[in-house]
Design brief:
- The chain has 27 helices and 20 strands.
- With about 675 residues, it is α/β, with parallel strands linked by helices.
- Strands 10-9-11-12-14-13 form a six-stranded parallel sheet, with helices on both faces. Strands 1-2-3-7-6 form a five-stranded parallel sheet, sandwiched between helices.
- Strand 11, helix 18 (about 440-455) and strand 12 (about 460-465) form a beta-alpha-beta unit.
- The radius of gyration is 28 Å and the shape is elongated.
- About 55% of the residues are buried.
- The structure holds thiamine diphosphate.
- Thiamine diphosphate binds near residues 66, 117, 157, 158 and 191.
Length: about 675
């Protein structure tokens, strides 16, 4: 039997992709058909992976940043032997299938990250390449390259047009991520037509200026050229490489190839038939001849690769038992044995010290205290380190020259930072955290969303969390941001009111293995609140009664962060006036909402209808807690540029306003 040639092997991808899209009558056949030849070379000649063990830590990472071409990835995973059957391919884009419209992490074995929002895949890949480099620098020993693999990315014009690609590729060049190789699908087409009318950058020059190695003018349909380019890319381990591949979108479809019409719609029965003819593909949909199946099957080769690595790891473990144990611990997301004990002691001590300080400062003290315990913490800031207070005494900056560190100066690249952090979280062995001002959440928002969608332990540190930042004014003062965060499914948002709550917030973020957390922190100092031992324990429930009153409360105040102390002061002013007021601190709504009803009712007694929520942010969302008859003191406008106290006064976030509102409620005016 004659062994199938490369074009025939690539044509399997083309056929599966066009047929799956045709069956769903939805999807993107153009990119998979255009990139099939490149994929065939990369996956069959270079990619080190084991289809029966998709989580093998030292596998090469493959990211499809142009995620709309999902059928390319699904075809490759199916053909090489991942747990993805031909029936799964038939169910492309159907409810609860393993083959959703765009690749989704956690749904399909072998999908390394969720892609589709263009540009973020390359961001994730840069994060993964950083993770590989840092982990290798920490754990590899002479003769034991146990962390040593490549990160390959496919991307299209769309990814390169997105601003985030500049952010992350610029940093990748600066850091000299030599084991990152990106393939640009230079097909000259995006949805609206030929891109030259809206994308005329000199992409090679752009990447050269970032410090990348650029391999130009590669014929993406010529296996030999692709092979040569990959070899050249891999020779250079001090620079990331961009391989510019000229391709034809929809390659093989005689009437539609090279045209935008085949980008994002089924080819149509007639064109599918014509493509079969043109490609010399006589088989019915979803039928792959045995010899092609066998030629694609990578299970045996993959198992051998993994076994060889495991043998090396065994020797490594014999020689460096502590390192091996530590690496395993980190990949298992296990926390150190003394973790709980350490954090409880810190909590008790901080409660006792009762210090007035900004919660961003408290956050830094938490990092200082737990940093040595958690070498997996990989911190950073988007050029606001001194404001976010994300660095601590043990922070060591990762540079081009030295990857033995735990802190990244991301530069002014919020979106890129968040996407890279997601890549690091997905990679494993790290707990990424990164800071910026809360208002710049907007710049990185879609990556925060993807962290939540992918259920990754990414920790976003947002300081300057309200108008309390003062003089920088409305451009820097978040208003709607807390609401946006709370509206994001799967995200936990903590807004602690003092140092003690900040510790609990950090602890929750780190112990949470299945989702991201944001820590919203004040620029300005806040008072420490007194607590009983049981109140101290209840913080971790997301909400608790901070200030109790005699008997049933007449009014319940609900607040978060810096406004909690205003509520406490207001409530205390009623103590000798015969009005029983309870103050509830609600640092994390999502965690509180997960408590059982008995607990929630013990905090927010259902029969107490006079409730007032106070937060220096948009009022939207608070009716959930205050009910129909409740009131909200929030901010539904933009802020002001002035010293913090004056801005608070101007916008009515004051003790006086709270007191007046309570009086109005109690006297029946409201
Ligand atoms: C952030 C983002 N914006 C818009 C889209 C919608 N979209 C999907 S593909 C695409 C065009 C991409 O063009 P290109 O990368 O050249 O893909 P090709 O046409 O080669 O398949 C657009 C605008 C998206 N997926 N993500």
């Amino acid at each position: 039997m004659v062994a199938p040639n490369r074009r025939q092997l690539a044509n399997v991808i083309r056929a599966l992709s066009m047929d799956a899209v045709q069956k769903a009558n939805s999807g993107h056949p153009g990119a998979p058909m255009g990139m099939a030849d490149i994929a065939q070379v990369l996956w069959q000649d270079y990619l080190r992976h084991n289809p029966t063990s998709p989580e093998w830590p030292n596998r090469d990472r493959f990211i499809l940043s142009n995620g709309h071409g999902s059928m390319l990835l699904y075809s490759l995973l199916h053909l090489t032997g991942y747990a993805l059957t031909i029936d799964d391919l038939r169910a492309f884009r159907q409810l609860h299938s393993k083959t959703p419209g765009h690749p989704e992490f956690g749904i399909t074995p072998g999908v390394e990250t969720t892609t589709g929002p263009l540009g973020q895949g390359i961001g994730n890949a840069v994060g993964m390449a950083i993770a590989e480099r840092v982990l290798g620098a920490t754990f590899n020993r002479e003769g034991f390259p146990i962390v040593d693999h490549w990160t390959y990315v496919f991307l299209g014009d769309g990814c390169l047009m997105e601003g985030i690609s500049h952010e992350v590729c610029s940093l990748a060049g600066t850091l000299g991520l030599g084991k990152l190789i990106a393939f640009w699908d230079d097909n000259g087409i995006s949805i609206d037509g030929p891109v030259k009318r809206w994308f005329s950058d000199d992409t090679p020059k752009r990447f050269e200026s970032y410090g990348w190695q650029v391999i130009k003018d590669v014929d993406g349909h010529d296996a030999h050229s692709v092979q040569k380019a990959i070899d050249e890319a891999r020779k250079n381990t001090t620079q990331p490489t961009l391989i510019c591949c000229k391709t034809t979108i929809g390659f093989g479809a005689p009437n539609l190839q090279g045209k935008e019409k085949c980008h994002g719609a089924a080819l149509g029965e007639t064109e599918v038939a014509a493509t079969r003819e043109a490609l010399g593909w006589p088989y019915p949909p979803f039928v792959v001849p045995d010899e092609l199946k066998q030629a694609w099957d990578a299970r045996e080769k993959g198992a051998a690769l993994q076994h060889a690595w495991e043998a090396l790891f065994e020797q490594y473990a014999a020689k460096y038992p502590q390192l091996a144990k530590e690496l395993k611990r980190r990949f298992a997301k296990a926390l150190p044995d003394n973790w709980q004990e350490h954090m409880s002691a810190l909590l008790a001590q901080t409660q006792q010290q009762s210090k007035t300080l900004a919660t961003r400062k408290a956050s830094q003290l938490v990092l200082e205290s737990m940093g040595e315990l958690l070498p997996e913490l990989l911190g950073g800031s988007a050029d606001l380190t001194e404001s976010n207070l994300t660095a601590w005494g043990g922070s060591k900056v990762i540079t081009h020259e030295n990857a033995q560190g735990n802190y990244i100066h991301y530069g002014v690249r919020e979106f890129g930072m968040a996407a890279m952090m997601n890549g690091m979280a997905l990679y494993g062995g790290f707990i990424p955290y990164g800071g910026t001002f809360l208002t710049f959440l907007d710049y990185m928002r879609n990556a925060v969303r993807l962290a939540a969608l992918m259920q990754q332990r990414t920790i976003f540190v947002f300081s300057h969390d309200s108008i309390g930042l003062g003089e920088d004014g409305p451009t820097h003062q978040p208003i709607e941001h807390l609401t946006m965060l709370r509206a994001t499914p799967g995200l936990h948002t903590w807004r602690p009111c003092d140092a003690v709550e900040t510790i609990v917030a950090w602890q929750a973020a780190i112990e949470r293995k299945d989702g991201p957390t944001t820590l919203c922190l004040t620029r300005q100092a806040v008072s420490a609140q007194p607590r009983t031992p049981s109140q101290l324990i209840d913080i971790q429930k997301g909400g608790y009664v901070l200030l109790t009153c005699e008997g049933t409360p007449q009014v319940i105040l609900i607040s978060t962060g810096s406004e909690v102390e205003l509520c406490v002061q207001a409530a205390k002013s009623f103590q000798d006036k015969g009005v029983a007021i309870q103050v509830v601190s609600l640092p994390c709504c999502e965690v509180f909402d997960k408590q059982d009803m008995a607990y929630r009712d013990s905090v927010l007694a259902p029969n107490v209808k006079m409730r007032l929520a106070v937060e220096a942010g948009a009022s939207l969302g608070w009716h959930k807690y205050v009910g129909e008859q409740g009131r909200i003191i929030g901010i539904d406008r933009y802020g002001e540029s002035a010293p913090a106290a004056e801005v608070y006064a101007a916008l009515g976030i004051t003790v006086e306003h709270i007191v007046k509102t309570i009086n109005d409620m109690v006297s029946g005016v409201l």
